[in-house]
């Protein structure tokens, strides 16, 4: 407490001459001043939170109960938007596409990034160079990744099918065949796996060498060491990657929108690439159904909360935190 | 390389390794600088057989080729005439600059680049300063409810952008800013949760005595922040700056929502417009799209090579904190 008073009130010498009650008053005044300064430093965030998060959340909840096209005033319709969502086949389609994308992409993403990180960990001096190489695609703007997808995965002329042809495989029409659009987008997304690789590599390097030495002394083989030492020690990083990529996967937009939606596409069907946020964006800013889109946003929020909560619950059993009480 | 553990947030965030020691009290962990450095440098911890290492190198070389080739393909294609764009040759059969000339004529590319630079600089500078201010408020001062308030900051990171997207659009619409570049950066004046978290971690790692000393010497609260804490925090500020530059330069959705007129487009929005005009919708001039993609991507590649250390260490630290 005294150190607090010194910190807030100023000089040490004051303490000896000032009577206790006045000292208390000084302390209170100083602490008020302290709070005031703190609030001044926090003010940008507080203002931003109120204007750009809190109010929008409330207003978005209200809008979800209205019919609103920006031009006319919101018209209150109760839960009609939510009821309409249940019978909108495109919602079901978009949810299905998004679930497929996330469920397939996240495990692949984790496996590929773990494999690359393990390789890098064993690469000796070359690891720095290859770390750069693997990370570079992550810097590519998603729009350009969408363009690359259309070019590299083109059924007739694309590089991917050309390479598959060398091995006698007749590659599918990735960009037009509804059955192959999502797998194609998933493969393309693996190209930007770099950040996860770096996070996992850092986690691998953080495993104390001594753990491996004692495992060896105890006669543990490769598999035993992998499952009893490496995996538990990097499980927090793995879990982090799974959570972050799941949330990102559920909101996937840029690449698929670039490749299949927007003003230009009149040539082919894009139902297979209609992900949830793309449909939400269309409803909000192309069809100006702001009320309906707001209701969609809250469903997305609910889905993300549930999925994250499940992952957190599962992680309690599976993720090992050192020194956890 | 030696300095990294001291002056970068990786060190700031990871080096104290909060939960590490207790469980392994009897086992010495990797702690001495030289050892850390050795691991960082060689990346070789457990003894490996020579054969194993060579195999790893071969695998890495093949995979590295897969990761780099799309860039090479794109750059190479941008120098090919229209009829040869899809020939998948590594070296263009007939080399031409025409695509670059043409894309400059077809699209106001200089304007798009300038718009993007303006938005990126404003966004990155404002978010760095405002986040640092807020982070300082959360790390230096002690007041009731601080923990709860900081929890709220972290909680906003969980909120999907879609929930606030429409009302925020209506705010900018009400202010008459739709169609201008303002909505693309002005939200950054109020800090951003992730950077507040990152910078707070860094501030917490600074010795408090330093600020008490300045206080006794009569420095103002702002002076302590601006003249003492902030300069010490440069490495973390650099990470924030670079992360935001990348995020803003590549941002598509906000540009789609707010920009209407081609003259106000940022490069990603412009590239999307080119895809619409010359790609599947219309004239099948993929060479223009390819060339514009190269021009959009190059600045990010340059940023990466300039700030590689900040980016890689910043990314690595995000995982460790998780």
What does this structure look like?
- The complex is a heterodimer of chains A (325) and B (322).
- Chain A has helices at 2-9, 14-17, 20-63, 80-87, 89-121, 127-135, 142-152, 159-166, 178-190, 194-205, 209-217, 222-250, 254-260, 276-286, 290-318, and strands spanning 66-67, 75-76.
- By secondary structure, chain A is mainly alpha-helical.
- Chain A folds into two domains: 2-63; 83-318, MetI-like fold (Orthogonal Bundle).
- In chain A, helix 3 crosses helix 15 (290-318), helix 10 (194-205) runs antiparallel to helix 12 (222-250) and helix 12 (222-250) runs antiparallel to helix 15 (290-318).
- The longest helix of chain B is centred in the middle third of the chain and has 31 residues, at 109-139.
- Chain B has 322 residues and is mainly α.
- Chain B has two domains: 48-96, no CATH class; 105-321, MetI-like (MetI-like fold, Orthogonal Bundle), CATH 1.10.3720.10.
- In chain B, helix 4 (50-78) packs across helix 15 (286-306), helix 5 crosses helix 15 (286-306) and helix 6 (109-139) crosses helix 9.
- Chain B is built from 16 helices and no strands.
- Chain B is globular.
Helix/strand layout:
The complex is a heterodimer of chains A (325) and B (322).
Chain A: H1 2-9, H2 14-17, H3 20-63, E1 66-67, E2 75-76, H4 80-87, H5 89-121, H6 127-135, H7 142-152, H8 159-166, H9 178-190, H10 194-205, H11 209-217, H12 222-250, H13 254-260, H14 276-286, H15 290-318
Antiparallel strand pairs in A: 1-2
Chain B: H1 4-7, H2 9-14, H3 33-42, H4 50-78, H5 98-106, H6 109-139, H7 146-156, H8 161-174, H9 193-204, H10 208-216, H11 221-232, H12 234-249, H13 253-258, H14 267-278, H15 286-306, H16 308-321
């Amino acid at each position: 407490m005294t150190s607090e008073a010194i910190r807030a009130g100023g000089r040490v010498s004051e303490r000896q001459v000032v009577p206790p009650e006045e000292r208390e008053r000084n302390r209170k005044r100083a602490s008020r001043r302290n709070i005031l300064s703190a609030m001044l430093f926090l003010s940008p965030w507080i203002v931003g939170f109120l204007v750009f998060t809190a109010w929008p959340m409330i207003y978005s909840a209200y809008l979800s109960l209205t019919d609103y096209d920006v031009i006319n005033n919101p018209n209150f319709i109760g839960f009609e938007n939510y009821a309409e969502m249940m019978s909108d086949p495109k919602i079901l389609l978009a949810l299905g596409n998004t679930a497929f994308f996330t469920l397939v992409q996240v495990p692949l993403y984790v496996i590929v990034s773990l494999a690359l990180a393990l390789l890098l960990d064993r690469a000796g001096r070359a690891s720095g160079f290859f770390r750069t190489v693997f990370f570079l695609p992550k810097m590519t703007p998603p729009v350009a990744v969408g363009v690359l997808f259309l070019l590299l995965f083109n059924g007739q002329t694309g590089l991917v099918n050309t390479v598959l042809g060398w091995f006698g495989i007749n590659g599918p029409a990735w960009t037009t065949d509804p059955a192959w659009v999502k797998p194609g987008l998933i493969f393309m997304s693996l190209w930007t796996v770099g950040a996860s690789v770096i996070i996992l590599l850092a986690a691998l390097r953080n495993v104390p060498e001594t753990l491996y030495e004692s495992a060896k002394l105890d006669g543990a083989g490769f598999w035993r060491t992998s499952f009893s030492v490496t995996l538990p020690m990097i499980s927090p990083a793995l879990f982090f990657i799974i959570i972050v990529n799941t949330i990102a996967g559920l909101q996937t937009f840029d690449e698929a929108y670039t490749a299949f939606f927007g003003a230009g596409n009149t040539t082919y069907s894009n139902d297979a690439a209609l992900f949830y946020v793309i449909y939400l964006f269309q409803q909000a800013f192309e069809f100006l159904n702001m009320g309906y889109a707001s209701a969609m946003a809250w469903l997305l929020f609910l889905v993300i909360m549930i999925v994250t909560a499940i992952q957190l619950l599962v992680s309690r059993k599976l993720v090992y935190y050192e020194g956890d009480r | 390389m030696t300095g990294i553990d001291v002056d970068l947030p990786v060190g700031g965030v990871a080096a104290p390794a909060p939960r590490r020691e207790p469980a392994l009290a009897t086992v010495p962990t990797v702690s001495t600088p030289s050892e850390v450095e050795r691991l960082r440098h060689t990346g070789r911890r457990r003894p490996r057989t020579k054969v194993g290492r060579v195999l790893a190198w071969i695998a890495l070389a093949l995979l590295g080729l897969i990761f780099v080739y799309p860039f090479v393909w794109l750059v190479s294609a941008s120098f090919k005439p229209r009829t040869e764009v899809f020939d998948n040759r590594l070296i263009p059969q007939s080399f031409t600059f025409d695509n670059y000339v043409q894309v400059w004529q077809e699209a106001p590319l200089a304007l798009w680049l300038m718009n993007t630079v303006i938005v990126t600089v404003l966004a990155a500078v404002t978010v760095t300063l405002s986040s640092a201010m807020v982070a300082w408020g959360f790390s230096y001062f002690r007041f009731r409810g601080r923990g709860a308030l900081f929890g709220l900051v972290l909680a906003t990171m969980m909120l999907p952008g879609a929930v606030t997207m429409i009302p925020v659009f209506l705010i900018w619409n009400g202010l008459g800013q739709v169609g201008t570049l303002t909505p693309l950066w002005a939200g950054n004046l109020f800090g951003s949760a992730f950077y507040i978290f990152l910078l707070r971690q860094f501030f917490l790692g600074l010795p408090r005595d330093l600020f008490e000393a300045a206080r006794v010497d009569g420095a103002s609260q702002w002076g302590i922040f601006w003249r003492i804490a902030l300069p010490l925090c440069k490495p973390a500020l650099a990470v924030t700056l670079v992360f935001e530059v990348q995020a803003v330069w590549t941002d598509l959705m906000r540009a789609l929502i707010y920009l209407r007129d081609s003259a106000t487009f940022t490069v990603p929005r412009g590239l999307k417009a080119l895809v619409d005009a010359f790609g599947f919708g219309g004239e099948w001039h993929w060479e223009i799209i390819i060339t514009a993609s190269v021009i959009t991507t190059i600045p990010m590649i340059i940023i990466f090579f300039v700030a590689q250390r900040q980016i890689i260490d910043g990314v690595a630290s995000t995982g460790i904190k998780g």
